[in-house]
Batch of 2 targets.
Target 1
Amino acid sequence: MAEIEIRALRKTFDGAEVLKGVDLTIQDGEFISLVGPSGCGKSTLLRVIAGLEPQSSGEVRIDGVSADGIRPSARNLAMVFQSYALYPHLSVFDNIAVPLRMKRLSALERTPFLGRLMPGRRRAERVIRDDVERVAEQLEISPLLKRKPGQLSGGQRQRVAVGRAIVRQPRAFLFDEPLSNLDAKLRVHMRAEIAQLHRQLKTTFIYVTHDQAEAMTMSGRIAVMIGGELIQVGTPSAIYEEPCDIRVAEFVGTPKINAFPGRIRSDGRLEMLGHVLHVATPAPAGGCRVCVRPERIELGSHGPFSGTVVHLENLGSEAFVHIGGAGTDTPVVARVNDPSQLPAIGASAGYGFAPAAVRAFDADGKRIVTSIPSRVERPREVAVV
Ligand SMILES: Nc1ncnc2c1ncn2[C@@H]1O[C@H](COP(=O)(O)OP(=O)(O)OP(=O)(O)O)[C@@H](O)[C@H]1O
């Protein structure tokens, strides 16, 4: 088990800064996901923690000790890659046994013929066999131990890769997009397995993914990285409900949050698409973005906003209505819980939202504080819904 501290970490490749001063403390036993768009530096951060890549400046501390100068193998962190990185010519058993043989057998004991004659080899192999069988049982891959990776499905290969990581009993697991090669259904299944594994092992998990749904469903905390910086770290619900930056709001959530062009008036009220909202802010007057999640958009002929239905996404259990020509660059998306109630494409659609659904961001994309003023004070104010 390990607490991992990352302090002012910078990494430059050929003059391009990929990590721009990352600070993060990962608690012992925590499951944290690093999410962000492709190229934001997630894998680089993981590789620096693992010791596979040296940082340009800053520090990684593992259990209070600087990892500088400590070889990857001596850090005792297990990495699970997207590509599984299994040895194709070795059986599942031997793939899982590799790290144990590296640790417990000397170079001479590992040689194929001479090694067998060494006195300690047989005893060490018995212990290794027990460990591999225990892990195989835990991951329900015991019947596969004799097979080669080429004879396994993607999900089974992933389990073998996880088995090879677990068997070493590392201080922490570093996962680099481990489910990306699996089909959608299996990915959902494996998410549950990895979360269950974390509950069982109670070891620190650092999980890199560009799939925000994966991060939301598995981890205790999410760290959102954009352009080499950590923008926000928090629980999945805090990241989803209270994003501190419009880039976080737009990255997390499917479909994407609706962002309307807006304005902060000199009296502190927010205005959008010609309506004054029942939302106030102490932020200075100027341009802003008014954001509302699709599930908080309420369709109804009463408006006060309106447009034309341009697209429908019916997923069976829920549906999304895309409303174009509503004064926004891209169609406004509203979730409908009952797909039997969908409007027709081309129909006009009114919509609104409750003042509490508004998340507003200033011209620099930073979240601005908003409140809902008392209606008694401003009786003639235009309500949103
Ligand atoms: N060895 C390297 N040499 C030069 N540039 C690199 C190297 N490794 C990564 N980069 C660059 O650093 C940036 C961050 O890469 P990184 O792999 O960390 O991103 P990522 O967020 O993990 O992306 P993805 O989700 O696509 O895997 C990218 O622009 C990438 O091209």
Target 2
Amino acid sequence: MTDTDRRPVDPVDVVVLGLGAGGEHAARKLAEAGLRVVAVERDLVGGECPFYGCTPSKLMIHAAHEGRGLGRAATRIREANHDWSDESHAGPLEEAGVRIVRGHGRLAGQGRVEVAGTTYDARLGVLLDTGTEPTVPPVDGLAGTPYWTNREVMREVEAPESMVVLGGGPIGCELAQAFARFGTRVTLVEAEDRLLGPEEPEAAEVVTRVLRAEGVDVRVGSELSRVEHDGGFVLEVGGEVLSAERLLVAVGRTPNLADIGLETVGLSPDADHLTTDEWLRAGERLWAVGDITGRGAFTHVSLYQAKVAVRDLLGQGGSGADYRAVSRVTFTDPEVGAVGLTEAQARDAGLTVAVGRADIPQAARGWINEAEGIVKVVADRDRGVLVGGTVVAPYGGEVVGLLSAAVHAAIPVETLRGMHYAYPTFHRAIAAALSDL
Ligand SMILES: Cc1cc2nc3c(=O)[nH]c(=O)nc-3n(C[C@H](O)[C@H](O)[C@H](O)COP(=O)(O)OP(=O)(O)OC[C@H]3O[C@@H](n4cnc5c(N)ncnc54)[C@H](O)[C@@H]3O)c2cc1C
Ligand SMILES: NC(=O)c1ccc[n+]([C@@H]2O[C@H](COP(=O)([O-])OP(=O)(O)OC[C@H]3O[C@@H](n4cnc5c(N)ncnc54)[C@H](O)[C@@H]3O)[C@@H](O)[C@H]2O)c1
């Protein structure tokens, strides 16, 4: 008998391992349904979004948009997350009857999780929501310097004089613009040949133009090859030497899968995501939700998946997960709202594609507001429905809601063309894009 075999085994119904948005939701719902739920968290209950992600970044963006300083954003960030205390997340879970166990949990065979010396044996199974960590690229000299990731930057109260942002994805673009508006001299370095790689090239074009017009030095197709820090950062970028007070690394995320005992249930700990079926099942008595499923690293996806997994665990049936109309928003100004497939993805999927475009400055509201942006819709000609769309505009993340409904419900393009579109609104540009199809 090994030491592990002698450890106490605690029978429960479900173990939730990792309390990101989806895990938190699932744990509460399952406990409210009367199940014995143990929820394991090694850091803050609620995960990345409220403490280091969506909420603090959007508070920074809002303060910057209003012409307020980082100090104002910092105050509201502390108000929102109670100075990085998770009581407002953990409390409601405990009230619902969830037993929260603090520590790093690992699977210990089918339906079993080991944490802090106790093994929990889950009658129904384990739901994983272990999320991601910031990726740190293997750049010469980077390790050991006081670079920031999204974890550190959200705690800052004073904007630096200068900053290099590494990575032109949503995090890099959102924070580059916010800090430029706080008065920081920002250089944005992207390795690929454009910003916001997975989104429509037309969207990246607008965001690049706007960032440059606001003074951000946007460098695409550019690599950081060396870093030194001695009071400030000295960075070798594309053969040129730059200096900056701060360096923000935002080059993507690494899933927390390597050290959670996946090998004990026959899965690879080296995987970059877990494959799940329509009920979010990743194996026998095993469910997975959130960023680790690779179906879109967004809070609303994690929550959506958790709802489906909970119905499955409770045997309630209904519809399985459907990802045709996943929407997402990059909260630059203008915002990039998008849903479903891009033109390139639709072509790769073998669809007979039709594309319609409209320029926001040509729409009455765009001209009135002197706004930048575009609308692009992607249709499946054979079915006569939209399969994707992008709105880059002020409130683009709100305007795209109309396209989300259209893609989700497969509303015929002819029906969309026959709708009323209030004058003069930004969403009226969608009618122009539909006429261009
Ligand atoms: C700067 C930034 C801005 C963002 N903005 C947006 C936005 O505007 N909109 C949007 O939809 N999304 C946004 N996101 C993405 C969003 O934060 C994630 O998609 C969301 O947090 C969902 O993550 P999750 O459910 O996969 O888990 P996470 O939030 O990553 O949480 C996972 C939890 O599991 C815990 N954990 C991991 N391993 C273990 C273990 N072995 N034992 C115990 N606990 C463990 C971790 O401590 C963590 O608390 C942003 C992300 C960042 C970084
Ligand atoms: N508004 C939102 O919904 C929102 C906001 C922020 C983050 N997120 C989520 O968090 C995830 C992570 O965001 P992210 O922006 O860190 O990652 P990302 O993977 O979306 O983008 C990272 C960017 O960094 C570039 N890159 C990679 N290595 C590089 C290097 N060595 N030098 C320069 N550039 C390099 C990539 O080409 C890419 O453009 C996103 O995929 C998104 O789903 C969402």
